[in-house]
Predict the structure.
Amino acid sequence: MVSLQSALLDAVCESDLLADLEKDVTHDILAAAQIRRVPPKQIITTQGDRVTHLFLVGSGRVRFYHLTKQGSLVLLAWLMPGDVIGLLAILKHPFHYMASAEATSDCELFTWDHSLIRKIVSRHPVLAENALRISLGYLRSFVNRHIGLVTKTAEQRLAETLLRLGEQCGEVHPDGIEIHTTNEQLGGLAGVGPFTTSRMLSNWVRSGTVSKGRGRILLQAPEALMID
């Protein structure tokens, strides 16, 4: 059981999964969870495995990805505190995890096994509505991503992806917004090849729009990325 005094509560009470719930109900649901502490590079879920748990990210950062038959990693999303993994666990007969999740920093996860989260959802049906809303949000993101592949240039997609990451998980510094990502990860999210990604980032570095370090990009002039 989780202590209701846990500092993690503040990080997740605003999660979309817990929207429209009374504060005491939210705390009861979180108190029923187990806290799982995960170090960097540890796998949380593996695509193709049977769904056994629902996870709510309390702290840290998780990458959500698909591994192709050829062994290529396709990054689908970065997950931050308040995001969920394994929404299929709320179904009576969940199928398999559709993607893998891996901690990229020290993480703390609220976890409920399948039978427990099913009982909680039966008592609080709004959780099922919230889960559907989250799922549709993911679908909207992937639809927009697909439309972008057809209608937008590689530069537009890369710029929009950088701006979105800056808003979602960027760290504000006096000289800009820092995003922890590699060229490969950024290009994967934008649907842009590694050579083109590297070339465009180099152009933006020369123009002073961004600066780069190992595994990080600093947005210095995000307004310059608002490409029509």
